[in-house]
Write a structure and sequence with these properties.
Length: 506
């Protein structure tokens, strides 16, 4: 039955299929969540501040395409991004997640490329947003103050807080930390109704990351209380799968590990691993690192014709990046690369001027038509590459954080002794400047994805193009054309995911 994604929560569709996986999630972690939070434990790896890494090679080219393509020029296409009419700069107007989504990708894109026009435009937006803050700490569209249960709807603020953090890290803007402190104090003053329903209830992991980021800068005790409210009143990701919605899962499954930073609970960390294994075990049966969630996962719909939403791809990547930093477990970095070099490129047209809503492992007809036979849950066409301002709406505004976050928000091993030097050709395979990573990465379980070598096996990766090599192992691995041992027959392009010229691309 076709479903409108914006009515899922009102109609109860987000409960669809949840019992199918609930039995796989152990209940042992329940008691550990009652511990009161304390000062956060150190991450296994420090996250380098925005601007510390200079992209090169293939990644630099992807960022260039993004800057001159959909994300960098989306203000010209999207009426949601009209600086003169959005409530994020003019509080008497309306506004929701589109500007926050876009700025979360656009600001780090400007930083990564060092494009002066983009940096100036980012500053214009940030200045205008900071100027909207009211005396109680609230900012942005006034309509959001009473939009959820008669109180504030905090969901659209969470991506924007991350954009403000990126700006502060790169520029040292002294306005941002006091601004965030006032806003999170306003958030902490709200009752359970602001935390326990709608989209935000599933996505408090984003809020936890900001609260911990701010606590480490200010030491404000109320932030620990706020973190407790986010975890206690938000959806239960510990021994439960509260939503089958693909983006909610991609963002929410990491929340127990994040809260474990404040409690020291090993059980909370294990909850994240269990949820990932349950979802991917049932619905991740196609290459590329994602799972069948279009919009929701659905029992009986897990074959490669199904797809993964573009929002889900970049949110899953961001979760894996965060989990790499917190846990130090290189499996999360491997999983991030699986998405970054397989599903994310396939979600965009080759010129970076359009995206589609759903990326499938095995769908060849990428036209602007509704698919029959119940292939997808939504009732609108989702697979043609286009700007998609209103037809796709969330995905083209949100996808922009994918490459900037993956390639330029690198971990370093300042707080860990587990790191070892990566193979020279692999250490730069993301396109990152080696010196910016301090030459140290997590203790990877293998070397080159093709030959397994921990030594250089060919041309440096800065000149390489990632290609999909499905079926070479139990998990899809990224193959690199620089490896001399790669069979010529395996050099498949990402067209296996359907990346081909589409006449509907504008």
């Amino acid at each position: 039955m076709p479903l409108d994604r914006r009515r899922f929560l009102r109609t109860g569709a987000l409960t669809l299929g949840a019992p199918a996986l609930a039995g796989h999630l152990a209940p042992a972690a329940v008691a550990s969540t009652a511990r009161r939070p304390r000062a956060p434990l150190p991450d296994s790896f420090d996250r380098l501040p925005s601007g510390s890494v200079s992209p090169r090679g293939w990644l630099a080219e992807q960022l260039r395409l993004q800057l001159h393509g959909l994300c960098g020029r989306y203000e010209e296409r999207s009426h949601f991004l009209d600086f003169d009419t959005t409530g994020w700069t003019h509080p008497d107007r309306g506004g929701w997640e589109e500007v926050p989504y876009w700025l979360r990708g656009y600001v780090p894109l400007a930083v990564a490329t060092r494009d002066q026009a983009a940096l100036a435009n980012s500053r214009k937006w940030i200045d205008a947003i900071l100027a909207t803050q009211q005396s109680d700490g609230f900012f942005g569209p006034r309509s959001l103050r009473t939009q959820l249960n008669g109180g504030p709807d905090f969901w659209p603020f969470l991506p924007l807080l991350m954009a403000l953090r990126t700006h502060e890290e790169f520029t040292g803007d002294e306005r941002v930390v006091p601004f965030l402190t006032r806003f999170l104090s306003f958030m902490n003053a709200q009752g359970p109704g602001a935390f326990d329903s709608s989209w935000v209830s599933y996505r408090w992991g984003d809020g936890l990351d900001t609260a911990i980021w701010l606590y480490r800068r200010t030491g404000e005790a109320f932030l620990l209380d706020l973190a407790r409210k986010m975890h206690t009143y938000g959806a239960n990701w510990v021994d439960n799968l509260p939503s089958p919605h693909n983006v909610n899962i991609a963002q929410g499954f990491r929340e127990p590990t994040q809260y474990a930073q404040l409690t020291g609970s090993a059980e909370l960390r294990q909850a994240t691993y269990r949820t990932y294994a349950s979802v991917l075990g049932a619905y991740g049966q196609f290459p590329g690192g994602g799972f069948a969630g279009d919009e929701n996962y659905r029992p009986g719909f897990g074959d490669p014709r199904q797809g993964f939403e573009t929002c889900g791809i970049v949110e899953f990547m961001a979760s894996h990046e965060l989990l790499t930093r917190i846990t130090g477990d290189p499996v999360w970095a491997d999983r991030c690369e699986d998405l970054a070099f397989n599903m994310l490129p396939a979600a965009l047209d080759p010129q970076g001027t359009g995206t589609h809503y759903i990326t499938s492992a095995n769908t060849i007809d990428l036209n602007n038509a509704v698919k029959s036979q119940g292939q997808f849950q939504n009732g609108f066409a989702m697979q043609s590459y286009q700007p998609g301002v209103d037809q796709y709406r969330c995905c083209p505004h949100n996808y922009g954080m994918g490459w900037p976050y993956c390639g330029t928000c690198a971990p370093t091993s300042a707080t860990s002794t587990r790191a070892r030097r990566a193979p020279p050709h692999c250490a730069t395979s993301s396109g990152a400047t080696r010196s910016a990573w301090s030459g140290r990465w997590p203790s990877w379980r293998s070397g080159c994805a093709i030959c397994g070598s921990r030594r250089t096996c060919g041309t440096r990766a800065s000149a390489a193009t990632p290609t999909l090599s499905a079926g070479r192992s139990k998990r899809s691995r990224t193959s690199w054309t620089h490896c001399e041992k790669q069979p010529a027959s395996s050099k498949k392009s990402t067209a296996v995911h359907g990346r081909q010229d589409d006449p509907r691309v504008h």
